[in-house]
Design brief:
Blueprint: E1 2-7, H1 11-23, E2 29-34, E3 39-41, H2 46-50, E4 60-62, H3 63-66, E5 70-73, E6 76-81, E7 86-90, E8 96-100, E9 103-106, E10 110-112, H4 120-123, H5 130-148, H6 154-159, E11 161-165, H7 169-185, E12 198-202, H8 214-226, E13 229-232, E14 237-239, E15 244-247, E16 252-254, E17 257-260, E18 264-266, H9 268-272, E19 284-285, E20 291-293, E21 298-304, E22 309-310, H10 327-345, E23 360-363, E24 369-373, E25 376-379, H11 381-394, H12 398-414, H13 429-434
Parallel strand pairs: 1-2, 1-9, 2-5, 9-21, 11-12, 11-17, 12-13, 19-22
Antiparallel strand pairs: 3-4, 6-7, 7-8, 10-18, 14-15, 15-16, 20-21, 23-24, 24-25
This protein binds flavin-adenine dinucleotide.
Amino acid sequence: MRDILIVGGGYAGFYAAWNLEKLLRTSEARITVVEPRPYMTYQPFLPELVAGSIEARHVVVSLRGHLRRTTVVPGRVTSITHADKKVEVRMPDGSTRTLEYDIIAVTAGAVSRVFPIDGISEHAIGLKTVEEAVAVRDQILTAFEDAAALPPGPERRRLLTATVVGGGFSGVEVFGEMLALATSLLKSYPEIQFSELSFHLIEANGRILPEVTDKPGQWVVEHLTQRGGIVHLNSRITSAAGNEVQLSTGERYASNILVWAAGNATNPVVASHTDLPVDARGLLITRPDLRVGTDDEIVEDAWAAGDDAAVPDLASPVPESRTVPNAQHAVRQGRLLAKNITAVVRGELPRDYLHHSLGTVATLGLGHGIFQYKSLVIKGLLAWLMHRGYHVLAVPTWERKFRVLLMWIASFLFGRDIVSLESVQHPRAAFLEAIPPLATLPVRMPVEVPRAG
Ligand SMILES: Cc1cc2nc3c(=O)[nH]c(=O)nc-3n(C[C@H](O)[C@H](O)[C@H](O)COP(=O)(O)OP(=O)(O)OC[C@H]3O[C@@H](n4cnc5c(N)ncnc54)[C@H](O)[C@@H]3O)c2cc1C
Protein backbone atom coordinates (compact mmCIF):
# COMPACT_ATOMS: atom_id res chain seq x y z
CA MET A 1 0.00 0.00 0.00
CA ARG A 2 1.59 3.31 -1.14
CA ASP A 3 0.54 6.79 -0.12
CA ILE A 4 0.35 9.00 -3.20
CA LEU A 5 0.12 12.73 -2.52
CA ILE A 6 -0.83 15.18 -5.27
CA VAL A 7 -0.05 18.86 -4.70
CA GLY A 8 -2.73 20.90 -6.47
CA GLY A 9 -6.06 19.70 -7.84
CA GLY A 10 -6.06 21.82 -11.00
CA TYR A 11 -5.90 20.54 -14.54
CA ALA A 12 -2.97 18.12 -14.25
CA GLY A 13 -3.64 17.19 -10.61
CA PHE A 14 -7.33 16.47 -11.11
CA TYR A 15 -6.69 14.29 -14.16
CA ALA A 16 -3.88 12.46 -12.37
CA ALA A 17 -6.08 11.66 -9.33
CA TRP A 18 -9.11 10.79 -11.48
CA ASN A 19 -7.10 8.32 -13.56
CA LEU A 20 -5.19 6.90 -10.60
CA GLU A 21 -8.54 6.00 -9.07
CA LYS A 22 -9.40 4.06 -12.22
CA LEU A 23 -6.01 2.38 -12.62
CA LEU A 24 -4.98 1.44 -9.09
CA ARG A 25 -6.80 -1.01 -6.85
CA THR A 26 -7.74 0.20 -3.36
CA SER A 27 -5.27 -2.33 -1.95
CA GLU A 28 -2.44 -0.79 -3.98
CA ALA A 29 -2.55 2.88 -2.99
CA ARG A 30 -4.18 5.64 -0.99
CA ILE A 31 -4.55 8.86 -2.97
CA THR A 32 -4.57 12.34 -1.41
CA VAL A 33 -5.00 15.67 -3.18
CA VAL A 34 -4.05 18.86 -1.34
CA GLU A 35 -5.88 21.79 -2.94
CA PRO A 36 -7.05 25.02 -1.27
CA ARG A 37 -10.14 25.23 -3.48
CA PRO A 38 -12.82 22.52 -3.46
CA TYR A 39 -12.76 22.42 -7.25
CA MET A 40 -10.64 22.23 -10.37
CA THR A 41 -10.92 25.35 -12.54
CA TYR A 42 -11.28 25.00 -16.30
CA GLN A 43 -9.29 28.18 -17.04
CA PRO A 44 -9.91 28.29 -20.82
CA PHE A 45 -13.55 29.11 -20.02
CA LEU A 46 -12.71 32.14 -17.84
CA PRO A 47 -12.89 34.66 -20.73
CA GLU A 48 -16.37 33.33 -21.64
CA LEU A 49 -17.36 33.58 -17.99
CA VAL A 50 -16.34 37.25 -18.04
CA ALA A 51 -18.58 37.70 -21.08
CA GLY A 52 -21.54 36.03 -19.39
CA SER A 53 -21.68 33.16 -21.89
CA ILE A 54 -20.99 30.55 -19.20
CA GLU A 55 -22.09 30.47 -15.58
CA ALA A 56 -19.47 30.48 -12.81
CA ARG A 57 -20.27 27.09 -11.33
CA HIS A 58 -20.09 25.43 -14.75
CA VAL A 59 -16.43 26.44 -15.14
CA VAL A 60 -15.37 24.42 -12.12
CA VAL A 61 -15.37 20.70 -11.42
CA SER A 62 -16.04 19.59 -7.85
CA LEU A 63 -13.16 17.49 -6.50
CA ARG A 64 -15.30 15.63 -3.98
CA GLY A 65 -18.05 15.13 -6.54
CA HIS A 66 -15.77 13.27 -8.92
CA LEU A 67 -12.88 11.89 -6.87
CA ARG A 68 -14.69 9.20 -4.91
CA ARG A 69 -11.65 7.36 -3.54
CA THR A 70 -9.33 10.31 -3.00
CA THR A 71 -8.85 12.14 0.28
CA VAL A 72 -9.14 15.84 -0.47
CA VAL A 73 -7.25 18.05 1.98
CA PRO A 74 -8.51 21.65 1.72
CA GLY A 75 -5.18 23.36 2.37
CA ARG A 76 -2.18 24.98 0.70
CA VAL A 77 1.16 23.19 0.64
CA THR A 78 3.76 25.60 2.00
CA SER A 79 6.83 23.38 1.76
CA ILE A 80 7.89 20.03 0.32
CA THR A 81 10.79 18.20 1.96
CA HIS A 82 11.33 15.22 -0.25
CA ALA A 83 14.34 14.02 1.77
CA ASP A 84 11.87 13.25 4.61
CA LYS A 85 8.87 12.67 2.29
CA LYS A 86 6.83 15.28 4.11
CA VAL A 87 4.80 18.34 3.14
CA GLU A 88 3.64 21.17 5.36
CA VAL A 89 0.08 22.25 4.68
CA ARG A 90 -1.55 25.49 5.81
CA MET A 91 -5.18 24.70 6.62
CA PRO A 92 -8.10 27.17 6.21
CA ASP A 93 -8.14 27.91 9.97
CA GLY A 94 -4.48 28.97 9.82
CA SER A 95 -3.15 25.82 11.50
CA THR A 96 -0.36 23.74 9.96
CA ARG A 97 -0.52 20.02 9.21
CA THR A 98 2.33 17.77 8.22
CA LEU A 99 1.47 15.05 5.72
CA GLU A 100 3.73 12.13 4.92
CA TYR A 101 3.81 10.32 1.60
CA ASP A 102 5.53 7.57 -0.34
CA ILE A 103 5.08 9.15 -3.77
CA ILE A 104 4.54 12.83 -4.56
CA ALA A 105 3.15 14.40 -7.75
CA VAL A 106 3.59 18.17 -7.90
CA THR A 107 0.97 19.84 -10.08
CA ALA A 108 0.60 23.24 -8.39
CA GLY A 109 0.43 25.23 -11.65
CA ALA A 110 1.63 28.81 -12.00
CA VAL A 111 0.63 32.17 -10.53
CA SER A 112 0.09 35.54 -12.24
CA ARG A 113 3.29 37.33 -13.21
CA VAL A 114 3.06 40.75 -11.59
CA PHE A 115 5.55 43.61 -11.62
CA PRO A 116 5.94 46.19 -8.84
CA ILE A 117 4.05 49.05 -10.47
CA ASP A 118 2.32 51.86 -8.62
CA GLY A 119 -1.39 51.25 -8.13
CA ILE A 120 -1.41 47.64 -9.36
CA SER A 121 -2.00 46.05 -5.97
CA GLU A 122 -4.89 48.48 -5.29
CA HIS A 123 -6.69 48.39 -8.64
CA ALA A 124 -5.69 45.44 -10.85
CA ILE A 125 -7.33 42.03 -10.90
CA GLY A 126 -5.85 38.81 -12.31
CA LEU A 127 -7.53 36.23 -14.50
CA LYS A 128 -6.61 32.81 -13.20
CA THR A 129 -9.53 32.06 -10.93
CA VAL A 130 -13.27 31.90 -11.26
CA GLU A 131 -13.64 34.56 -8.53
CA GLU A 132 -11.58 37.01 -10.60
CA ALA A 133 -13.59 36.33 -13.77
CA VAL A 134 -16.91 36.79 -11.94
CA ALA A 135 -15.65 40.06 -10.45
CA VAL A 136 -14.60 41.44 -13.86
CA ARG A 137 -17.99 40.55 -15.34
CA ASP A 138 -19.80 42.26 -12.47
CA GLN A 139 -17.53 45.31 -12.70
CA ILE A 140 -18.45 45.78 -16.37
CA LEU A 141 -22.17 45.34 -15.69
CA THR A 142 -22.10 47.70 -12.69
CA ALA A 143 -20.12 50.27 -14.68
CA PHE A 144 -22.83 50.35 -17.38
CA GLU A 145 -25.55 50.71 -14.75
CA ASP A 146 -23.72 53.59 -13.03
CA ALA A 147 -22.60 55.33 -16.23
CA ALA A 148 -26.13 55.32 -17.67
CA ALA A 149 -27.28 57.37 -14.67
CA LEU A 150 -24.57 60.03 -15.13
CA PRO A 151 -24.39 62.97 -17.53
CA PRO A 152 -21.49 62.91 -20.03
CA GLY A 153 -18.25 63.90 -18.30
CA PRO A 154 -15.00 62.53 -16.91
CA GLU A 155 -16.63 60.15 -14.39
CA ARG A 156 -18.90 58.58 -16.99
CA ARG A 157 -15.94 58.28 -19.36
CA ARG A 158 -13.86 56.59 -16.63
CA LEU A 159 -16.64 54.09 -15.89
CA LEU A 160 -16.78 53.07 -19.53
CA THR A 161 -13.02 52.58 -19.80
CA ALA A 162 -11.38 49.21 -19.30
CA THR A 163 -7.79 48.04 -19.67
CA VAL A 164 -6.31 44.58 -20.17
CA VAL A 165 -2.57 44.24 -19.63
CA GLY A 166 -0.93 41.46 -21.64
CA GLY A 167 -1.39 40.52 -25.28
CA GLY A 168 -0.81 36.81 -24.77
CA PHE A 169 -3.43 34.13 -25.14
CA SER A 170 -5.51 34.84 -22.03
CA GLY A 171 -5.18 38.65 -22.35
CA VAL A 172 -6.39 38.67 -25.96
CA GLU A 173 -9.21 36.23 -25.25
CA VAL A 174 -10.54 38.18 -22.28
CA PHE A 175 -10.16 41.49 -24.15
CA GLY A 176 -12.18 40.16 -27.09
CA GLU A 177 -14.87 38.81 -24.77
CA MET A 178 -15.05 42.05 -22.73
CA LEU A 179 -15.44 44.03 -25.94
CA ALA A 180 -18.20 41.69 -27.12
CA LEU A 181 -20.04 41.96 -23.79
CA ALA A 182 -19.77 45.77 -23.70
CA THR A 183 -20.99 46.11 -27.28
CA SER A 184 -23.93 43.82 -26.67
CA LEU A 185 -24.89 45.77 -23.52
CA LEU A 186 -25.51 48.88 -25.63
CA LYS A 187 -28.86 47.38 -26.71
CA SER A 188 -30.05 47.48 -23.11
CA TYR A 189 -28.50 50.88 -22.33
CA PRO A 190 -29.75 53.34 -24.98
CA GLU A 191 -28.29 56.17 -22.84
CA ILE A 192 -24.77 54.98 -23.74
CA GLN A 193 -23.24 55.36 -27.20
CA PHE A 194 -20.75 52.98 -28.81
CA SER A 195 -18.31 55.90 -29.21
CA GLU A 196 -18.18 56.28 -25.42
CA LEU A 197 -16.63 52.84 -24.90
CA SER A 198 -12.88 52.90 -24.41
CA PHE A 199 -11.33 49.43 -24.16
CA HIS A 200 -7.51 49.24 -24.15
CA LEU A 201 -5.22 46.24 -24.65
CA ILE A 202 -1.63 46.93 -23.55
CA GLU A 203 1.23 44.80 -24.90
CA ALA A 204 4.93 45.41 -24.24
CA ASN A 205 6.05 43.70 -27.46
CA GLY A 206 5.48 44.73 -31.05
CA ARG A 207 2.89 42.00 -31.62
CA ILE A 208 0.22 40.04 -29.77
CA LEU A 209 -0.60 36.33 -29.50
CA PRO A 210 2.90 34.79 -29.66
CA GLU A 211 1.19 31.39 -30.11
CA VAL A 212 0.30 32.31 -33.73
CA THR A 213 2.60 33.57 -36.49
CA ASP A 214 3.03 37.25 -37.45
CA LYS A 215 0.31 37.58 -40.10
CA PRO A 216 -2.58 36.09 -38.11
CA GLY A 217 -1.31 38.06 -35.09
CA GLN A 218 -1.55 41.26 -37.13
CA TRP A 219 -5.02 40.24 -38.32
CA VAL A 220 -6.16 39.90 -34.70
CA VAL A 221 -4.94 43.46 -33.95
CA GLU A 222 -6.84 44.80 -36.97
CA HIS A 223 -9.93 42.79 -36.11
CA LEU A 224 -10.03 44.05 -32.50
CA THR A 225 -9.44 47.62 -33.69
CA GLN A 226 -12.31 47.39 -36.19
CA ARG A 227 -14.57 46.34 -33.31
CA GLY A 228 -13.64 49.50 -31.40
CA GLY A 229 -10.78 48.14 -29.27
CA ILE A 230 -7.62 50.21 -28.78
CA VAL A 231 -4.51 48.02 -29.03
CA HIS A 232 -1.28 49.57 -27.70
CA LEU A 233 1.78 47.68 -28.98
CA ASN A 234 5.31 48.37 -27.70
CA SER A 235 3.73 49.92 -24.61
CA ARG A 236 4.26 49.14 -20.96
CA ILE A 237 2.08 50.24 -18.11
CA THR A 238 4.16 52.40 -15.76
CA SER A 239 1.53 53.36 -13.18
CA ALA A 240 -2.08 52.71 -12.27
CA ALA A 241 -2.13 54.88 -9.18
CA GLY A 242 -5.48 56.52 -8.44
CA ASN A 243 -7.09 54.49 -11.24
CA GLU A 244 -5.14 56.50 -13.80
CA VAL A 245 -3.28 54.30 -16.28
CA GLN A 246 0.05 55.69 -17.46
CA LEU A 247 1.88 54.11 -20.36
CA SER A 248 5.57 54.14 -21.31
CA THR A 249 4.52 56.04 -24.44
CA GLY A 250 3.42 58.97 -22.26
CA GLU A 251 -0.27 58.32 -22.79
CA ARG A 252 -2.49 58.45 -19.68
CA TYR A 253 -6.18 57.94 -19.05
CA ALA A 254 -8.54 57.08 -16.20
CA SER A 255 -9.62 53.43 -16.27
CA ASN A 256 -12.36 51.85 -14.21
CA ILE A 257 -11.32 48.23 -14.83
CA LEU A 258 -7.77 46.91 -14.96
CA VAL A 259 -7.33 43.24 -15.81
CA TRP A 260 -3.84 41.85 -15.36
CA ALA A 261 -3.01 39.02 -17.79
CA ALA A 262 0.73 39.55 -18.22
CA GLY A 263 1.71 35.89 -18.11
CA ASN A 264 2.80 33.22 -15.64
CA ALA A 265 5.21 33.32 -12.75
CA THR A 266 6.41 30.18 -11.02
CA ASN A 267 4.47 28.91 -8.07
CA PRO A 268 6.37 29.99 -4.91
CA VAL A 269 6.15 26.56 -3.27
CA VAL A 270 7.95 25.04 -6.24
CA ALA A 271 10.34 27.91 -6.88
CA SER A 272 11.62 28.33 -3.34
CA HIS A 273 10.08 26.01 -0.74
CA THR A 274 11.24 22.55 -1.77
CA ASP A 275 14.39 20.47 -1.94
CA LEU A 276 13.27 19.08 -5.32
CA PRO A 277 15.49 20.35 -8.18
CA VAL A 278 14.27 23.41 -10.10
CA ASP A 279 15.65 25.12 -13.20
CA ALA A 280 16.63 28.79 -13.63
CA ARG A 281 12.97 29.77 -14.15
CA GLY A 282 11.91 28.01 -10.94
CA LEU A 283 10.21 25.07 -12.69
CA LEU A 284 10.68 21.48 -11.51
CA ILE A 285 13.31 19.71 -13.57
CA THR A 286 11.36 16.86 -15.08
CA ARG A 287 12.30 13.89 -17.26
CA PRO A 288 10.30 12.95 -20.36
CA ASP A 289 8.56 10.23 -18.30
CA LEU A 290 7.42 12.98 -15.84
CA ARG A 291 9.66 11.81 -13.01
CA VAL A 292 11.52 14.67 -11.37
CA GLY A 293 15.21 14.57 -12.29
CA THR A 294 17.43 14.44 -15.34
CA ASP A 295 18.35 11.72 -17.83
CA ASP A 296 21.26 10.77 -15.58
CA GLU A 297 19.68 11.19 -12.18
CA ILE A 298 16.17 10.24 -11.14
CA VAL A 299 14.67 11.67 -7.96
CA GLU A 300 12.84 8.53 -6.82
CA ASP A 301 9.12 8.82 -6.00
CA ALA A 302 8.82 12.45 -7.17
CA TRP A 303 6.74 13.35 -10.23
CA ALA A 304 5.63 16.64 -11.77
CA ALA A 305 3.39 17.88 -14.60
CA GLY A 306 1.61 20.94 -15.94
CA ASP A 307 2.58 24.60 -15.66
CA ASP A 308 4.99 24.08 -12.74
CA ALA A 309 7.15 21.51 -14.55
CA ALA A 310 9.86 21.86 -17.20
CA VAL A 311 8.93 18.76 -19.23
CA PRO A 312 11.15 18.02 -22.28
CA ASP A 313 9.16 18.55 -25.48
CA LEU A 314 10.05 15.47 -27.51
CA ALA A 315 7.78 16.66 -30.36
CA SER A 316 9.86 19.81 -30.91
CA PRO A 317 12.76 19.78 -33.40
CA VAL A 318 14.51 22.36 -31.20
CA PRO A 319 16.85 20.63 -28.75
CA GLU A 320 16.35 21.33 -25.04
CA SER A 321 12.88 22.76 -25.59
CA ARG A 322 10.22 22.29 -22.93
CA THR A 323 6.46 21.88 -23.30
CA VAL A 324 4.63 25.22 -23.22
CA PRO A 325 2.33 25.91 -20.27
CA ASN A 326 -1.12 25.16 -21.64
CA ALA A 327 -4.13 22.97 -21.01
CA GLN A 328 -3.36 20.75 -24.02
CA HIS A 329 -0.23 19.55 -22.24
CA ALA A 330 -1.53 19.70 -18.64
CA VAL A 331 -4.41 17.32 -19.33
CA ARG A 332 -2.28 14.81 -21.21
CA GLN A 333 0.55 15.01 -18.70
CA GLY A 334 -1.98 14.51 -15.88
CA ARG A 335 -3.26 11.31 -17.53
CA LEU A 336 0.24 10.02 -18.24
CA LEU A 337 1.25 10.83 -14.68
CA ALA A 338 -1.42 8.39 -13.47
CA LYS A 339 -0.36 5.70 -15.97
CA ASN A 340 3.33 6.05 -15.18
CA ILE A 341 2.89 6.11 -11.40
CA THR A 342 0.76 2.96 -11.72
CA ALA A 343 3.43 1.33 -13.88
CA VAL A 344 6.21 2.09 -11.40
CA VAL A 345 4.10 0.96 -8.41
CA ARG A 346 3.64 -2.36 -10.24
CA GLY A 347 7.31 -2.65 -11.13
CA GLU A 348 6.78 -1.80 -14.81
CA LEU A 349 8.51 0.83 -16.95
CA PRO A 350 6.99 4.34 -17.40
CA ARG A 351 6.41 5.83 -20.86
CA ASP A 352 7.80 9.12 -22.19
CA TYR A 353 5.51 12.08 -22.76
CA LEU A 354 5.08 12.95 -26.43
CA HIS A 355 2.37 15.22 -27.76
CA HIS A 356 2.25 16.99 -31.10
CA SER A 357 0.39 20.29 -30.78
CA LEU A 358 -3.15 20.31 -32.12
CA GLY A 359 -2.71 23.98 -33.06
CA THR A 360 -3.94 27.13 -31.39
CA VAL A 361 -7.52 28.26 -31.17
CA ALA A 362 -8.69 31.40 -29.38
CA THR A 363 -12.01 33.11 -28.88
CA LEU A 364 -12.10 36.82 -29.68
CA GLY A 365 -15.67 37.27 -28.44
CA LEU A 366 -19.04 35.84 -29.44
CA GLY A 367 -18.86 34.72 -33.09
CA HIS A 368 -15.19 35.68 -33.54
CA GLY A 369 -12.10 33.52 -33.28
CA ILE A 370 -8.75 32.54 -34.70
CA PHE A 371 -7.24 29.10 -35.30
CA GLN A 372 -3.80 28.17 -36.55
CA TYR A 373 -2.28 24.78 -37.21
CA LYS A 374 1.10 25.06 -38.92
CA SER A 375 0.36 27.16 -42.04
CA LEU A 376 -3.41 26.63 -41.89
CA VAL A 377 -5.17 29.72 -40.50
CA ILE A 378 -8.92 29.98 -39.97
CA LYS A 379 -10.51 33.25 -38.86
CA GLY A 380 -13.92 34.44 -37.73
CA LEU A 381 -17.06 32.41 -37.04
CA LEU A 382 -15.66 29.01 -38.07
CA ALA A 383 -12.62 29.42 -35.79
CA TRP A 384 -14.91 30.49 -32.95
CA LEU A 385 -17.10 27.40 -33.48
CA MET A 386 -13.94 25.29 -33.41
CA HIS A 387 -12.96 26.97 -30.13
CA ARG A 388 -16.31 26.14 -28.57
CA GLY A 389 -16.39 22.62 -30.02
CA TYR A 390 -12.90 21.86 -28.75
CA HIS A 391 -13.46 23.21 -25.25
CA VAL A 392 -16.87 21.66 -24.67
CA LEU A 393 -15.29 18.31 -25.48
CA ALA A 394 -12.22 19.08 -23.36
CA VAL A 395 -13.94 20.22 -20.16
CA PRO A 396 -13.84 17.25 -17.79
CA THR A 397 -16.92 15.12 -17.11
CA TRP A 398 -20.07 14.68 -19.21
CA GLU A 399 -22.11 16.49 -16.61
CA ARG A 400 -20.02 19.72 -17.08
CA LYS A 401 -20.15 19.41 -20.89
CA PHE A 402 -23.92 19.13 -20.72
CA ARG A 403 -24.32 22.15 -18.42
CA VAL A 404 -22.06 24.34 -20.56
CA LEU A 405 -23.85 23.30 -23.74
CA LEU A 406 -27.26 24.04 -22.21
CA MET A 407 -26.04 27.47 -21.11
CA TRP A 408 -24.81 28.25 -24.62
CA ILE A 409 -28.16 27.19 -26.06
CA ALA A 410 -30.02 29.33 -23.50
CA SER A 411 -27.80 32.34 -24.27
CA PHE A 412 -28.35 31.83 -28.00
CA LEU A 413 -32.12 31.79 -27.51
CA PHE A 414 -32.51 34.47 -24.82
CA GLY A 415 -29.25 36.46 -24.83
CA ARG A 416 -26.77 36.92 -21.97
CA ASP A 417 -27.76 37.56 -18.40
CA ILE A 418 -26.93 41.23 -17.86
CA VAL A 419 -27.56 41.67 -14.14
CA SER A 420 -24.56 42.53 -12.01
CA LEU A 421 -24.38 40.54 -8.79
CA GLU A 422 -21.53 42.63 -7.39
CA SER A 423 -23.70 43.03 -4.28
CA VAL A 424 -22.94 39.38 -3.33
CA GLN A 425 -19.72 40.76 -1.93
CA HIS A 426 -21.86 42.40 0.79
CA PRO A 427 -24.45 39.70 1.45
CA ARG A 428 -25.55 41.06 4.85
CA ALA A 429 -26.20 44.62 3.65
CA ALA A 430 -29.97 44.20 3.10
CA PHE A 431 -30.39 42.34 6.38
CA LEU A 432 -28.43 44.95 8.34
CA GLU A 433 -30.52 47.73 6.77
CA ALA A 434 -33.67 45.98 7.95
CA ILE A 435 -32.61 45.99 11.62
CA PRO A 436 -34.12 49.09 13.28
CA PRO A 437 -31.85 51.08 15.59
CA LEU A 438 -32.18 49.84 19.19
CA ALA A 439 -33.66 53.14 20.44
CA THR A 440 -36.68 52.83 18.13
CA LEU A 441 -37.64 49.34 19.32
CA PRO A 442 -40.87 49.29 21.38
CA VAL A 443 -40.18 48.31 24.96
CA ARG A 444 -42.11 45.12 25.72
CA MET A 445 -43.29 44.28 29.23
CA PRO A 446 -42.80 40.64 30.21
CA VAL A 447 -46.05 38.77 29.61
CA GLU A 448 -47.37 36.81 32.56
CA VAL A 449 -48.33 33.28 31.45
CA PRO A 450 -50.96 31.79 33.75
CA ARG A 451 -49.78 28.50 35.17
CA ALA A 452 -51.83 25.41 34.52
CA GLY A 453 -53.48 23.96 37.64
C1 LIG B 1 -7.68 32.87 -18.88
C2 LIG B 1 -6.95 31.64 -19.33
C3 LIG B 1 -7.30 31.04 -20.53
C4 LIG B 1 -6.62 29.91 -20.96
N1 LIG B 1 -6.99 29.34 -22.15
C5 LIG B 1 -6.35 28.24 -22.58
C6 LIG B 1 -6.73 27.62 -23.79
O1 LIG B 1 -7.67 28.08 -24.48
N2 LIG B 1 -6.05 26.51 -24.18
C7 LIG B 1 -5.04 25.97 -23.43
O2 LIG B 1 -4.45 24.95 -23.83
N3 LIG B 1 -4.66 26.54 -22.27
C8 LIG B 1 -5.29 27.65 -21.83
N4 LIG B 1 -4.92 28.22 -20.63
C9 LIG B 1 -3.81 27.63 -19.86
C10 LIG B 1 -4.26 26.45 -19.01
O3 LIG B 1 -5.45 26.71 -18.33
C11 LIG B 1 -3.15 26.07 -18.03
O4 LIG B 1 -1.99 25.81 -18.76
C12 LIG B 1 -3.53 24.83 -17.21
O5 LIG B 1 -4.61 25.12 -16.36
C13 LIG B 1 -2.34 24.36 -16.37
O6 LIG B 1 -2.73 23.26 -15.61
P1 LIG B 1 -2.01 22.95 -14.21
O7 LIG B 1 -2.65 21.75 -13.65
O8 LIG B 1 -0.54 22.93 -14.40
O9 LIG B 1 -2.29 24.22 -13.30
P2 LIG B 1 -3.70 24.75 -12.78
O10 LIG B 1 -4.80 24.29 -13.64
O11 LIG B 1 -3.49 26.20 -12.58
O12 LIG B 1 -3.84 24.02 -11.36
C14 LIG B 1 -2.97 24.26 -10.29
C15 LIG B 1 -3.75 23.99 -9.01
O13 LIG B 1 -2.84 23.96 -7.92
C16 LIG B 1 -3.41 24.65 -6.83
N5 LIG B 1 -2.30 25.14 -6.02
C17 LIG B 1 -1.48 26.17 -6.25
N6 LIG B 1 -0.57 26.29 -5.28
C18 LIG B 1 -0.83 25.29 -4.40
C19 LIG B 1 -0.24 24.90 -3.18
N7 LIG B 1 0.81 25.57 -2.67
N8 LIG B 1 -0.76 23.84 -2.51
C20 LIG B 1 -1.82 23.15 -3.02
N9 LIG B 1 -2.42 23.49 -4.19
C21 LIG B 1 -1.92 24.54 -4.86
C22 LIG B 1 -4.22 25.77 -7.45
O14 LIG B 1 -5.26 26.19 -6.57
C23 LIG B 1 -4.77 25.09 -8.72
O15 LIG B 1 -6.02 24.51 -8.50
C24 LIG B 1 -5.59 29.35 -20.17
C25 LIG B 1 -5.25 29.95 -18.96
C26 LIG B 1 -5.92 31.07 -18.52
C27 LIG B 1 -5.54 31.70 -17.21
